[in-house]
Specification:
By secondary structure, this protein is of the alpha+beta class. It has helices spanning 28-32, 54-67, 76-90, 158-170, 213-225, 236-239, 273-285, 288-294, and strands spanning 8-11, 14-17, 35-37, 40-45, 48-51, 95-103, 115-122, 133-141, 175-179, 185-188, 192-197, 200-203, 229-231, 244-249, 253-260, 263-264. It folds into two domains: 8-122, D-amino Acid Aminotransferase, Chain A, domain 1; 133-285, D-amino Acid Aminotransferase, subunit A, domain 2 (D-amino Acid Aminotransferase, Chain A, domain 2), CATH 3.20.10. It has eight helices and 16 strands.
């Protein structure tokens, strides 16, 4: 699914075959989860491959490297250019792009000064599918923001996402919703959450969540088209009294929820702001909204 004999990756300054990649089993990333990654999408448009918000994604990658004291010298512009070249070398336009910085062979608990930087990409459909999701409130909470940098995409943080997704799937659900340490709704295992109540949208503020690039894109679209939206904490009981709910993320895009635990969201998905935003977001990533605004 991710690569074949022909696939090319960018590795430590060179384009090489994916089959030539090697991993050190002494890597700090394997033992302790000390690494940083990104999840980026590119879309096939009339003008060719279009990477959505590469600067924002690479800025977050650099922020993650910075807070983990991982040496990383590339600029956002260099990274964007390398990624376009990588897509071209792989003949991909509609793709998921996964840059990762791993730390080297070092068993101490101090960030290694040896690093590897790899960008991989592959063709990938909709991450959460097209149907409405049946979601379970997880027994796992999002990490305490004083225990880590929650806004950094650090590889080790994703153990929490794996635990909650495993739990949801084992119980017959599609996805997990996690609360923060104060009992407020935080986010999905790999996406942010919005609820709709009486024609207005609410989404948890930054602090205990990943500051999603899709989340901020959706908030900007709401402001442009006049959909009322507020960043505010809410509880699971408030969410189980909402009209509708949706998740946002680079991989998930905008995806509606059918239910949360035993609560069915009452609004018809097609009648919600979330449904409109799903369509507007699709046009935004394809570069069709800018054109419409300009003409
Ligand atoms: N929350 C978590 C925990 C995530 O891993 C992601 C994916 N990066 C998101 C939210 C959504 O972020 P984005 O819209 O930038 O992909």
């Amino acid at each position: 699914m991710y690569f074949n004999e022909e696939s090319v990756v960018f590795c430590n300054g060179k384009f090489i075959k994916a089959t030539e990649l090697t991993t050190s089993s002494y890597s700090q990333s394997i033992h302790y989860g000390n690494g940083v990654f990104e999840g980026i999408r590119s879309y096939d448009t009339d003008q060719g491959a279009r990477i959505f918000k590469p600067y924002e994604h690479y800025k977050r990658l650099k922020f993650g490297a910075d807070v983990m004291d991982i040496k990383f010298e590339y600029t956002e512009e260099e990274l964007t250019n390398i990624t376009y070249e990588l897509l071209e070398r792989n003949g991909l336009k509609d793709a998921y792009i996964r840059p990762v910085i791993t730390t080297g062979a070092d068993m101490s608990l101090l960030t290694s000064d040896k690093t590897d930087f790899i960008i991989q990409c592959w063709e990938w459909g909709k991450y959460m599918g097209d149907k409405l999701l049946r979601v379970k409130t997880s027994k796992f909470q999002r990490p305490n923001p004083k225990s880590c940098f929650v806004e950094a995409k650090v590889t080790g943080h994703y153990v929490n996402s794996i635990l909650s997704t495993n739990e949801a799937k084992k119980n017959g659900f599609d996805e997990a919703l996690l609360l923060d340490m104060n009992g407020n709704v935080a986010e999905c295992s790999g996406a942010n959450v919005f609820m709709e109540k009486d024609g207005k949208l609410y989404t948890p503020p930054r602090g205990h969540i990943m500051a999603g690039i899709t989340r901020s894109t959706v908030i900007d679209i709401c402001k442009e088209v006049g959909i009322p939206v507020e960043e505010k904490h809410f509880t699971i009981d408030e969410l189980k009294n909402a009209d509708a709910c949706f998740f946002t993320g680079t991989a998930a895009e905008v995806v509606g929820l059918q239910s949360l635990d035993n609560y069915q969201f009452p609004s018809e998905w097609k009648d919600t702001h979330g449904y409109n935003l799903m369509k507007l977001y699709k046009r935004e990533v394809l570069g069709q909204r800018q054109k419409a605004k300009a003409s």
